[in-house]
């Protein structure tokens, strides 16, 4: 998704790609969230497993939900499964990769960001 969005001209901050060695992770994520206009959450089975553990993913999700700038993208799971873990996130309008390819999802996000 990261590469598809960048290819579409979207400036993307992604902690797994943009966090340098030795950089304080939580502070870098905090800065990334602060400077973001839209937050994307790729909802996967692994993500659904991490949320109840209240780690970093849970903290990022809390910030994005509070800022009302969140777009969930369901991938290899369902909105019903998400609703069982995070009803607030599941209530957001989002995208589903079972309905659209990743390329189509990236194009829709790029269109949203351009508004």
Mean pLDDT: 88
CATH fold label: Rossmann fold
Domains counted in the coordinates: how many? 1
Helix proportion range: 40-55%
Q: State the order of secondary-structure elements, H for helix, E for strand.
A: HHHEHHEHHEH
CATH top level assignment: Alpha Beta
First CA to last CA: what distance? 20 Å
Total count of strands: 3
- Pick out the low-confidence regions: none
What is the CATH-assigned architecture? Answer: 3-Layer(aba) Sandwich
Q: Based on Cα principal axes, name the global outline.
A: globular
Give the C-alpha Rg: 14 Å
Report the CATH superfamily: Toll/interleukin-1 receptor homology (TIR) domain
Question: What percent of residues are in strands?
Answer: 5-15%
Structural class: mainly alpha
Side by side, the strands of the main sheet go 1-2-3
- Total helices: the number is 8
The description of the largest β-sheet is: 3 strands, parallel
Explain the overall architecture:
By secondary structure, the chain is mainly alpha-helical. It has one domain (2-114): 3-Layer(aba) Sandwich (Rossmann fold). 54% of the residues lie in helices and 10% in strands. The chain has eight helices and three strands, in the order αααβααβααβα. The protein has helices at residues 2-7, 15-18, 25-34, 45-50, 56-67, 79-85, 87-90, 102-114, and strands spanning 39-43, 70-74, 95-96. A three-stranded parallel beta sheet has the order 1-2-3. Helix 3 (25-34) runs parallel beside helix 5.
């Amino acid at each position: 998704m990261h590469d598809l969005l960048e290819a579409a001209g979207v400036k993307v901050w992604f902690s797994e790609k943009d966090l340098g060695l030795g950089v304080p992770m939580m502070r870098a994520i905090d800065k990334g969230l602060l400077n973001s206009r839209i937050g994307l959450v790729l909802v996967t089975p692994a993500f659904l497993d991490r949320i109840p553990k209240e780690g970093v993913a849970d903290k990022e999700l809390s910030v994005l939900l509070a800022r009302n700038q969140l777009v969930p993208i369901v991938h290899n799971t369902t909105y019903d499964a998400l609703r069982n873990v995070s009803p607030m996130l599941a209530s957001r309008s989002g995208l589903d990769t079972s309905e659209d390819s990743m390329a189509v999802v990236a194009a829709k996000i790029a269109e949203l960001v351009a508004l």
